[in-house]
Amino acid sequence: MALADIFTRTEGSSARPTVTRTYGELPAVQGEGMAALRAWVDEIAALTQPARVHWIEGSRAENDALLREMVDEGKLIKLNPEWRPGSYLARSHPSDVARTEARTFIASEREEDAGPTNNWVAPDEIRATITPLFEGSMKGRTMYVVPFSMGPVGGPLSHIGVQVTDSAYAVTSIGIMTRVGTEVLREIAGGAPWVKTVHSVGAPLQPGEQDVAWPCNDEKYIVHFPDTLEVWSYGSGYGGNAILAKKCFALRIASVIGRDEGWLAEHMLLIRVIDPAGRAYHLAAAFPSACGKTNLAMLRPTIPGWRVETLGDDIAWLRPGEDGRLWAINPEAGFFGVAPGTGQSTNVTAVETLWGNTIFTNVALRPDGDVWWEGLTDEPPAELTDWEGKPWTPASGRPAAHPNSRFTVAAAQCPQIAGDWDAPQGVPLDAILFGGRRATNVPLVVEATDWTHGVFMGSNISSEKTAAQEGTVGELRRDPFAMLPFCGYNMADYFAHWLKVGQKLRFDRAPRVFQVNWFRKGADGRFLWPGFGDNSRVIDWIIRRIEGEVGAVDSPIGRLPEPSDLDLDGIEVSQADLDELFAVDPQLWLREADLTEEFYRTFDGRVPAPLWAELAALRYRLQRA
After folding, report:
1. What is the DSSP letter of 78?
2. Which of 216, 291, 414, 487 is catalytic?
3. Phi and psi of 95, rounded to 5°?
4. Are residues 371 and 293 in the same domain?
5. What is the pLDDT of residue 92?
6. What pLDDT sits at residue 475?
7. Catalytic: 487?
8. Which end of the chain, N or C, is more open, meaning fewer C-beta atoms within 10 Å of its C-beta?
């Protein structure tokens, strides 16, 4: 029996369309909060006019039934259980393959609160635009009600949301990426606040109309209402456009909640590093895309005796504790990773995580019923079915997997996952790392002199735009704190909020701040640092700095290692390469300072004074160098 046929009852009135309401086996959850939730669900159902409403209870049986239905409908391909048990492949429409940043909006009451780095739109204006789109958008479909928790249910750092969606693919993905179920409803019933998220693929079905494998709409909107803590997404079924708990809630909306409540929602990985003596340290790191974030989250050190345990690969929520330290959780329950480039030679831990129970999207299909993507193996298979369902061979002249193809898998499957990765209280941070992809200027590692200097570093993270432009300092893609696409309010105010959070920390317990750059190149275009597992040698120096076991060399831009303090046993890095890895050219850095000033001025005077003071101090040191 299909889920849509279970526990149905029909409600209607002359004021709204008749909707068949389908309720899963919910406990008798009572309370004022639950009544408000039911009223909101009824309101959205009246607007979108689904044929059925199903409240997701979060059970394994329910999830399995959803997956079977999608296979029967041709929306998922079940992979060969011999190679990839419990796993499925989805193929999206070619027009719906990535985040739609150009159609992503912040609808704050005041434009200045969104800031120049966001697409701002007036709330009343955008509601007038999207409300007609949602009218009847779920006709002929099931509207799923998904209560979810970011972080362990009831945890002191956790927050709750509810997503309504007409995409079963989104439901199963949310079930991997968050904690879903009736426990969340009990929190809501007890009065816990919750964020409202609404999603529709925008493809209503008329009576007798045949559905397609990937329903979506050419018109797309992802709209965030920070003043009312809502997200409305229309037209896309893909990734973060449909899994609203991810970037939309966990970063854009959560950054606003954090601003108001005194904590930080960050685009950061989270790891525990254990030294040969068994001492444990906790690091968070913010890297833009294509800068080695997932590889560091699942690092396998090349230094004997060192271990890394994964706590999170993408998002961290940071909150000052009563002990003066900064505590962090990974609010997610799964990994939503880019497949291409993930392979045995680059990230064996990720490959081992994907042994089963994974939803793959837009990767290639092997003849034996397993999956493949560029970078998984050194040599491609002789034949495949590509991400669009077309025959493919190495001679096809096109990628077999889409460059933004994805895997969605539970974090608990990671062989390096920490035993307490989902502890409600989180972990205390010892260090925060910022990094970008820079072929020039930025040394392998630099330590900030204090918290304010660290915020200054984070506000200036950037990468060269393309490989062809490497070496051209003026052609940089700014991504402050790796949050440029994800901050839900004015980034200048966000910089100020980082400074305020630092004031709540004890100076001797605040995490130390570092900037790293694995991607510096020599004049011959060659990477100067081996990267990957050897990045543990930089982590080793950072931890020994925290413990006061090694010194540092003052430079105009921060504190640098003595090259002799890096553990280079077992790798070949010449003295000339080391010198270039840590070279600081005052004239090039003065040009960077000019670019920083230009960037700060885009915020119309809202950049906090301490950061302007840091910029002036940097120029002074460079001019004297």
Report:
1. E
2. 291
3. -90, 0
4. no
5. 98
6. 74
7. no
8. N
